[in-house]
Design goal:
alpha/beta, eight-stranded mixed sheet, two-stranded antiparallel sheet, Alpha/beta hydrolase, hydrolase, AB_hydrolase_1, AB_hydrolase_fold, hydrolase activity
Length: 394
């Protein structure tokens, strides 16, 4: 990368499509390509008009499409080449399998090098893209996974995942499974009747006897109930999957709804994992509303998808676990100090778990999850990435 980048570079937004045949299985997404047995991935390349580069910054999230987020455009404005990549599950994670998403990321890394001609690929993991990037990097350095948590064959050891040249984590959480568990409403007693709840843990109810600021004992009990609920759903999913396999009558999957998934003591008690977030709010809006709304995490899922991306005990895509397996890839970790999504405890856990010697940690005071109305914090993030890239010859 060359120094002296312009503050507002000229770049083009170009469509990119990656097609490949994948390991066989049931049709998971509604598309013509899927019916043909072909997987198609869509993305956008932000390519500089007058500044060729040997490096590209690859943004990817398990399910979100990232090309309209502020950070990719800001990096392109700063003169960098950016590839915004989607998985095979864009904007719909109900059937998402994390092992397949890692494979999709590998196809984009290969495409960036072999089709687009970039020599260096830097993963940029924003939010849920952070644990995905670490999952991919761990499997590219030392692949071990041959099956999904549901027991289905999906061999990443044979995928020839290419190593990347660097990883940038921005507002990254521990994993989809862990952040969901910390948001599961522990008052739910019956998964099929969300109105049947334990009032002692129904913190959004005005009749709940426990009020903020919450005691340490209550918080501990609250967390244990959340983990127990995740494990009950996991056990049910495993049992149902086993039942379907025993029947062997053509029904191989089951869809279901997980109710009330945005309930965290942090949302209404800012003394818990304190940071600069606004109390009583979340990145998706009023947490009481999001708790029962259609956009809540894991609201719609399949058995296999739950086990792969949402199970607290079985998911392979845990940032802290995979961070211990990365030994050769430099990592820049950027924490948003006023993050209204990622718990304040998550980034330090990831940083402490990283075993690679070349790791750096930057905290941007006042920055929220999406940097909404915060151009100065976006600039600070961009400056940090560019400085780190220079020093690592990227």
């Amino acid at each position: 990368m060359e120094r002296g980048l312009p503050t507002k570079a000229l770049w083009d937004r170009l469509p990119e499509i990656v097609r490949f045949r994948d390991q066989p299985g049931m049709t998971e997404t509604y598309s013509f390509a899927g019916a043909e047995g072909t997987t198609e991935l869509e993305g956008q390349l932000f390519r500089q008009r007058a500044r060729p580069s040997k490096a590209v910054y690859l943004f990817m999230h398990p399910t979100a499409t990232v090309q309209l987020l502020p950070m990719p455009e800001a990096l392109a404005d700063a003169g960098l080449h950016v590839l915004c990549a989607s998985s095979r599950y864009p904007r719909n994670d109900s059937a998402l399998i994390m092992e397949k998403v890692a494979y999709d990321m590998g196809q984009w890394v290969r495409h960036a090098r072999e089709s687009l001609g970039y020599e260096k690929v830097i993963l940029v993991g924003w939010s849920g893209g952070g644990s995905l990037s670490l999952f991919y990097a761990a499997q590219s350095e030392h692949p071990t996974i041959t099956h999904t948590p549901a027991g289905d064959l999906y061999d990443l050891t044979a995928a020839r995942l290419q190593r990347v040249d660097g990883i940038v984590l921005i507002a990254a959480h521990l994993s989809r499974a862990e952040v969901l568990t910390e948001w599961l409403d522990p008052s739910v007693i019956d998964e099929f009747d969300p109105d049947t709840r334990d009032l002692e843990f129904d913190i959004y109810s005005p009749d709940c006897p426990n009020k903020p600021p919450f005691t340490a004992d209550f918080i501990a009990a609250f967390r244990e109930r959340q983990r127990a609920r995740n494990r009950r759903i996991t056990a049910w999913a495993e049992e149902m999957l086993a039942t379907l396999r025993r029947r062997n009558d053509g029904e191989t999957e089951r869809a279901f709804v997980t109710h009330r998934t945005m309930c965290d003591v942090r949302w209404i008690d800012p003394t818990i994992d304190p940071n600069g977030r606004a109390p009583g709010a979340s990145y998706l809006g009023n947490p009481r509303t999001v708790n029962v709304g259609p956009a809540g995490l894991a609201r719609f899922s399949t058995l296999r998808s739950w086990l792969s991306q949402w199970s607290y005990d079985l998911s392979n895509s845990k940032a802290a676990v995979n961070a211990t397996k990365i030994h050769r890839t430099p990592v820049l970790q950027i924490e948003n100090e006023a993050d209204d999504a990622v718990p304040a405890s998550h980034n330090p856990i990831i940083h402490n778990a990283l075993t690679v010697a070349n790791k750096e940690f930057v905290s941007i005071k006042g920055a929220t999850h999406f940097y909404q109305g915060q151009p100065e914090h976006v600039s600070a993030c961009i400056d940090g990435i560019i400085d780190w890239s220079h020093r690592n010859d990227l």
